[in-house]
Amino acid sequence: MPSTVPPHAAPAESRVRARTRRAILTAAASLLARNRGATLAEIAEAADVGRTSLHRYFPDRESLINAVIQDSASVMSQAIQEARLDDDDPVQTLRRLVATMFDVGDHLLFLFSDPGVRATFENLSEQGARTDAVARLIERGCAEGVFDSKVSSAWIESVFWALIYAGCDAVHKGRLPRHQALNSVLRSLENGIRIKGAGEEPDV
Amino acid sequence: MPSTVPPHAAPAESRVRARTRRAILTAAASLLARNRGATLAEIAEAADVGRTSLHRYFPDRESLINAVIQDSASVMSQAIQEARLDDDDPVQTLRRLVATMFDVGDHLLFLFSDPGVRATFENLSEQGARTDAVARLIERGCAEGVFDSKVSSAWIESVFWALIYAGCDAVHKGRLPRHQALNSVLRSLENGIRIKGAGEEPDV
DNA sequence: TCATTATGGAACATCAATGATCTATTTTGG
DNA sequence: CCAAAATAGATCATTGATGTTCCATAATGA
C-alpha cells in the first residue's frame, strides 16, 4: 500500500490545491503570530495567492483561523511524536523535545501569541489528547523523581512552554542565534525544574 | 509643598474625571489582556461608562490603546521603584520584585499579551529607561556572580519575565492560588538562573 | 440652591474589512 | 495539444466597529 496516501481518504485533494492550501496555512501562521489583526488581503499576499483564492479555500476568516490552529496543532503534534517521548530517560528525552519544538517555532509562536487562539488550542488538546504526550512525559519524570517534586507537574509544564516560547521569540527577534537560544533554554529549564544530578553543561 | 500635587501640573483634572479615566484604563487593560479584539463598546461597558464618555477621554481607539500601555507601564514602573531594587542582596531583592509584579498582574498580562502592544511597551522602555531597573538588577547580580554566568543577562531577564507571566497567567486562570504560584515562580526562577547557595526552600 | 461639570443614550455618517460574483488567464494532467 | 482545474483580478454589496453630534439628566461643589 502507498505510504503517503491514506487508504480511505475519499476524494483526495489535488497536488496543486494541497500546495496552495499549505502555502496559505503557513503564511497565515507566520503573519498572525506577529500581527493578530492581519488582514485577509495581507495574508493572501504573504502566501502569494489572490485574495479570491484564499476565500475559495476558507470561506470566512473564522474558518481560516480555526484551520491554522488545527494545522499548527497537528504540526506540533507530529513533531512531538517524532521526538519519541516514551523512550530513554526523561532528561534526554526532554532535550530532544526542546530541540524539536524549536523546529516548529513559527507554529508555536502563533499558537501562544493570542489568548484566544491559545484557549482554542488548549481546548482541542484536551479533547484530542494531542500535546498530552508532553504532560505525560513530565508526569513520568516527576514520578521517577527526576523532576522537582516541590511544584506540581502542571506548573513544570507551564515553565516548559514558557521557556520554549521565550527561546523561540528570542530567535525570531534576532536577539539570539538558534543554537545559543537552545542551550539557554535547556540550561534554564533543567536547572529550573531541578533535575537531580544535572551537575554541569548541557551544552551542544 | 504638597506631596501629591505636582507644582506645575497646569490645569489639573477634576477628581471625578480622574476616577473615570482610571476606571476606563483599568477595565481596558483587564479586558484587552484576555481579548485583544475587544470592542470599544465592550470596554466602555466593562468600565461602567457610556461609550460616549469613553470617547470623550480618548478620541480614538489608538489613543486609548496607547494610553493603556503608558498607564500600565507607569504602574509597573512605580511598583518596581517601590521594590527598591538597589538595596539588599540581589536574591532577596529579586524575591521582593517577583511578589511586587504579582500585585500588578493585570497590567503585566496586558503588556505581554499582544506582540504589538509588547513591542510598543518595550520601545518606550528603551527611551524612558523605566523597567530598566530590572535589567540593572540582573546585571548587578551577574556581576556579583550571584546569577548564572553561562547565559547572557538579557536571557536571564527573558526568563524572569516569562516565568512571572506564566505565574500571573496561572493565577488569573485559576489554575493556582496566588501564594502557590508565587512560590513556584520563585523556585523555578531561582534554580533556573542558578543562584549560588540557594540550597532549599524559598517558601512562604 | 444653583451654576458648572460630567455623563448617558440615541441617532447618524463613515469606513475598512469582508464575502460574494463574474470573467479572463494560466496551469495541470492526460 | 486539449479539456479540466485552478487562479488572479476587478467589481460590488454587506456589515460591524468607529467616530461624531446633540440633547436630556445627573452629579458636583461652592
From TrEMBL, chains A, B:
<feature type="DNA-binding region" description="H-T-H motif">
    <location>
        <begin position="39"/>
        <end position="58"/>
    </location>
</feature>
<keyword id="KW-0238">DNA-binding</keyword>
<dbReference type="Pfam" id="PF00440">
    <property type="entry name" value="TetR_N"/>
</dbReference>
<protein>
    <recommendedName>
        <fullName>HTH tetR-type domain-containing protein</fullName>
    </recommendedName>
</protein>
<feature type="domain" description="HTH tetR-type">
    <location>
        <begin position="18"/>
        <end position="76"/>
    </location>
</feature>
<dbReference type="InterPro" id="IPR009057">
    <property type="entry name" value="Homeodomain-like_sf"/>
</dbReference>
<dbReference type="InterPro" id="IPR050109">
    <property type="entry name" value="HTH-type_TetR-like_transc_reg"/>
</dbReference>
<keyword id="KW-0805">Transcription regulation</keyword>
<keyword id="KW-0804">Transcription</keyword>
<dbReference type="InterPro" id="IPR001647">
    <property type="entry name" value="HTH_TetR"/>
</dbReference>
